[in-house]
């Protein structure tokens, strides 16, 4: 449902948030290792997240990536998805047909309407703080 870049973006932001809660900045290589993503690809994703003010990039010897602790609860997954994939997850045909719409629907059009609404609701109501909670207690993970 999400692009690979978006999946990695969510995982990267979640990892950065978890480390920011511990007052740690993390390097590009550490993030790429932790989310099991190629370094160059991760760099492009982090650049998009930084441009969209989801993460902060600090240059220099003690630099790295972080998220302000006060922002962790305010950043929703929908912000990350929009920064990486735009609104593509909310539009278009579930089967990839170009001419699918309400007046000329594909066989799954009506079912996809509800799935998209549920997905939108989940993305808009799940914060990075919530995502990090499972990591902190060892109930969730970011690698395959």
Quick take:
The chain is mostly helical and 144 residues long.
Q: What does this molecule look like?
A:
With 144 residues, the chain is mostly helical. It has a single domain, classed as Winged helix-like DNA-binding domain superfamily/Winged helix DNA-binding domain (Arc Repressor Mutant, subunit A, Orthogonal Bundle), CATH 1.10.10.10. The chain is 50% helix and 4% strand. The chain contains 6 helices and 2 strands. The chain has a two-stranded antiparallel sheet with strand order 1-2. A hairpin with a 5-residue loop joins β1 and β2. The two termini are 18 Å apart. The mean pLDDT is 91.
Percent helix range: 40-55%
Kindly estimate the percentage of residues that lie in beta strands according to DSSP.
under 5%
The outline comes out as: elongated
Name the CATH superfamily assignment: Winged helix-like DNA-binding domain superfamily/Winged helix DNA-binding domain
- What's the gyration radius in Å? 17 Å
Count of runs of 4 or more consecutive helical residues: 6
- Please give the number of β-strands: 2
Broad CATH class: Mainly Alpha
Low-confidence stretches: none
CA distance, first residue to last residue: 18 Å
SSE blueprint and pairings:
Blueprint: H1 4-20, H2 28-35, H3 39-51, E1 56-58, E2 64-66, H4 77-85, H5 109-124, H6 128-136
């Amino acid at each position: 449902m999400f692009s690979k870049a978006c999946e990695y973006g969510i995982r990267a932001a979640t990892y950065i948030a978890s480390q920011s809660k511990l007052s740690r900045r993390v390097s590009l290589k550490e993030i790429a290792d932790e989310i099991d993503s190629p370094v160059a690809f991760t760099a492009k994703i982090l650049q998009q997240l930084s441009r969209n003010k989801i993460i902060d990039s600090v240059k220099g010897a003690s630099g790295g990536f972080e998220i302000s602790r006060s922002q962790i609860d305010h950043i929703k997954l929908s912000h990350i998805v929009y920064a990486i994939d735009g609104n593509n997850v909310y539009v278009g045909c579930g089967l990839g047909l170009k001419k699918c719409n309400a007046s000329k629907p594909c066989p799954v059009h009506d079912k996809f309407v509800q799935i998209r609404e549920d997905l939108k609701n989940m993305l808009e109501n799940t914060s990075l703080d919530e995502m990090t909670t499972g990591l902190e207690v060892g109930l969730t993970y970011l690698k395959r």
